[in-house]
Design a protein that fits this description.
By secondary structure, this protein is α/β, with parallel strands linked by helices. It is built from 9 helices and 13 strands. The radius of gyration is 19 Å and the shape is globular. About 40% of the residues are buried.
């Protein structure tokens, strides 16, 4: 069933075939798709242009000559969707592929809640082909409560603390209320900051187990250590810089509002650093990027953006 009140915003940056698979999967689920391309090569842009032209208005292409950053590109698409009269905006990365009826499942879960409940974001269940993404979400009922919850088909989780941007279905009203994405974040932790801003404004987030999205979080790698094979996702030094810079920005802006979040963050940092040191390549380069990110966050500075 096509949802004509939903506009999908897909940010493209040097995409592979997953983008075109995603666009095919989105077509029957949304009323319109806006692709914002962040300076991809001529071949990719040409394919996107031809696809938009053949879509009869179903796909709109917005081109940036260079990488303006994920948040800026999202905002371009969000503004277009708001002007187009969308009731809901579906945010998508170019490597995320929705399963059939993902959007319909999220809208149905929203409709099942009481009409007066301020649910502003509906998130899907994320998975990947390699099995590195766990079927869970993080729930927070109050400032001192924060815990992971496994969920699956048939489950709907309330009081979700945050959601990854890709696959998130956001009410248009939310953007009018709390504003758009923070463009100075460029990439990474944009969705954390937006979710916490939503919660502080009284909006709720839910996650739906019947809505499934295939997503890739970083680059998939396999390494053997002490005779044991490890499968994991890694990030470049460019991404590590933005992750650590922006996570400190989020702590500063929202940490006192949700102090239980710090326990999750400290555990995540410990796991990330252990994985980097024991398994990943370019260790010194990545550790140096993390150091720059932390220093720049403390000093309120921004480093190199485009990657």
């Amino acid at each position: 069933m096509q949802q004509t009140s939903v506009v999908a915003v897909v940010v493209s940056y040097r995409p592979d075939e997953r983008l075109f698979r995603a666009l095919d999967a989105l077509a029957p689920q949304v009323g319109r798709t806006v692709v914002v391309d962040n300076g991809s090569d001529a071949e990719a842009v040409g394919r996107l242009g031809a696809l938009a032209e053949a879509s009869g208005g179903g796909i709109t292409l917005i081109r940036n000559d260079e990488n303006a950053g994920l948040a800026a590109a999202q905002n371009q698409g969000i503004r277009f969707a708001l002007e187009d009269g969308a009731d809901w905006i579906l945010l998508m990365d170019d490597d995320s592929i929705p399963e059939p009826n993902m959007v319909a499942s999220m809208l149905s879960a929203h409709a099942a809640h009481p009409e007066g409940e301020r649910i502003g974001l509906v998130a899907p269940l994320l998975g990947d082909e390699e099995g590195t993404l766990k079927a869970r979400a993080y729930v927070s009922k109050h400032a001192l409560h924060f815990r992971p919850v496994r969920f699956g088909p048939g489950d709907v989780l309330d009081d979700v603390a945050f959601a990854m941007a890709s696959g998130s279905l956001v009410k248009a009203e939310v953007f009018r209320d709390v504003g758009l994405m923070r463009e100075d974040f460029f990439v990474d932790y944009i969705d954390f900051e937006f979710a916490f801003r939503m919660r502080r404004a009284g909006w709720k987030l839910i996650a739906v187990g019947d809505a499934r999205l295939q997503h890739r979080l970083g680059e998939y790698e396999q390494k053997t250590l002490f005779g044991r094979k490890f499968c994991f996702n890694s990030h470049s030094s460019f991404r590590r810089y933005h992750i650590y810079r922006n996570r400190l920005r989020v702590w500063r802006a929202h940490g006192l509002y949700l102090p239980a979040f710090f326990a999750f963050e400290f555990a995540s940092i410990g796991i990330d650093l252990a994985k980097l040191i024991l398994l990943e390549d370019d260790k010194l380069e990545k550790l140096a990027a993390i150091g720059r990110g932390v220093v720049h966050a403390l000093l309120g500075r921004s480093g190199v953006k485009a990657g």
